[in-house]
Amino acid sequence: MERAESISNLTPVGREAEVDLVPGTEIMTEIGGARFYHNEDNPDSVVLIPQPTDDPHDPLNWSMFWKTLVIVNQGIFVIASVIPALSIAPLTPVFMQQWEKSLTDVALLTGVTVLLLGYCNFFIIPSCEIFGRRITLLVCALLNFGACIWQATATSYGSFLAARILAGTGASANESVMNVVVTDIFFLHERGRYVGSYFWCYFMGLFLGPIISGAVQEKVSWRIFFWACTGAQGLNIIGLLFFFPETRRLRNQDPIPAVQGSEQGNNDNAKLEMSSGHVEFVSSTHIQSPQPGILGSGKPSRAQFGIFQAIDRTAWRSVVRHFFTPAYIFFFPIIFWASMSMGSAANALLAVNLLQSPGLAAPPYNFTPAQVGYANFALVGGGVLGLAVAGPWSDYVSQKATARNKGIREPEMRLWSLTPFIAAAIVGLVAFGVGLQGKWPWPAVIIIGFGFVGVQVVAIPTISITYAIDCYRPISGEIMAIATVCKNTFGVSKPNFPSPIHSGTDAMYLRNYF
Fold first, then answer.
1. Does the residue 47 lie in any domain?
2. Which parts pass through the membrane (predicted)?
């Protein structure tokens, strides 16, 4: 009743916006005389969503220098934690011989890490919301540092397996926190490219790790590889400590109002304010003019560099909800689809990682561990192409569709940009699976197979997860948590499938596997 009465008291424009908008729909232009904060570089462009505050320390108001510094440090954390965690595929024959273990036992070293990378996010996301992004990342970086030392000094299979468990726990933050940080500091129309940068960092670590580990093992020893990872993680801790301020916005930090509109808009006595579910109308008596020049010129405060931040007591009271929200939202059709899309793309890469060493080491290829690692340069090239195209391309497609829709943006407008990358996924998997089984020349298997898998593994998760975040912006962390759990649950089961290379099955097995 109160809802209907409040709608009836709105202006005609207010009633239309209030009733017709669904979660994820955003007004990217001015309507009804109400004016919003725009990008200062282009006042005629889309409206900034969410609207920034008048606080120069608001992460949305930070200069591009500080935003870039945050993303770079976060990206280095992702790469530095992924490389030691997911890079032992070329070392499989070495571990099998050194510890006299089966292929399944050695595959468990990756499987247990992959499992923890997903499920630990049930704790990482509440920690980010309650204690802040900064302290959560620093603790995880310290765990990674200790895990690298442990892996470098392990003298038995059991000890190395325990070190891998610690590595998976510490590295789990890279699965979700960067997307939360992107949502903290960037506006809606910018997020595609920066979500893409996260997936690029993640998969670059996944691509480069086997290259480095295989080469180091052949030239020196696999233990030196983990000592090098220890040094890289130590440098990253220093970077996070001095150049990664807190990006969390506490819930009592209200957005600034829209900029004063036309006379007609003032007479309507209403202003539009964006929210995740609908467009609200607020009285103009609550509106203050923002300080000029704040947007794009702010910087972090000294308090935002503190180790311990103010506890979000609202999030603390909702800690149980943070644990159960990822499982609950998994059954939302949009989130379910995005999780499956991300899981399918990522596990195509995992299948390539698991099979590249036994497949390419066998006749007629007879690759050494270093050569198996170098084959991953094709994945790197594909990943670079995916990064360069996916985020900006999806933002471009979405903005063009928004313009055709008279400034009303729907999250589904982004999905058309998936088409070329789905085609790339099909071509890459067929080239690798059928080509490896059929003993095709290595350029076809590696350049086309590895390369196209590298393209799709960055592009498809970037677009699908950005779409889900567009729809449910306030729970971006929970979306990444459940998508990661879905992806990694698939992944941990792959090492337990019988290897099509060593199982002695017929030639159709590998083709069906892919």
1. no
2. 65-86, 106-124, 136-153, 165-188, 195-212, 224-244, 327-352, 372-394, 415-436, 442-469
- Whole-angstrom distance, CA of residue 305 vs CA of residue 308: 9
pLDDT classification of 514: cutoffs 50, 70, 90: low
* CA separation, residue 200 to residues 30, 40, 382 (Å): 35, 29, 10
Q: Which range of residues forms the domain containing residue 167?
A: 62-248+319-513
In a domain, 307, yes or no: no
Q: Tell me, yes or no, whether 21 lies in a domain.
A: no
3-state SS assignment for residue 39 = coil
Q: How many domains does the chain fold into? A: 1
DSSP summary character for residue 180:
H
418: CATH: 1.20.1250.20
Burial 309-323 (b: 16+ CB within 10 A, else e): beebeebeeeeeebe
Across the chain, mean pLDDT equals 76
Number of Cβ within 10 Å of residue 209's Cβ equals: 25
- 407 falls within a domain: yes
The pLDDT value given to residue 40: 52
In angstroms, the CA 443 to CA 159 distance is 39
Question: Is the pLDDT confidence value at 7 over 70?
Answer: no
Q: Which of 53, 475, 58 is nearest to 254 (CA)?
A: 53
Task: Give, for 119, the enclosing helix (H) or strand (E).
Answer: helix 103-119
Distances (CA, A) of 407 to 30, 44, 235, 428, 473: 8, 12, 45, 37, 19
- Closest by Cα among 41, 11, 12, 17 to 29: 17
Q: Nearest Cα to 173, choosing from 134, 200, 137?
A: 137
Could you give the CA distance from residue 424 to residue 381 in angstroms, rounded to a whole number? 14
Cβ pair 272, 31 in contact under 8 A = yes
The residue assigned the tokens 């030392």 is 149
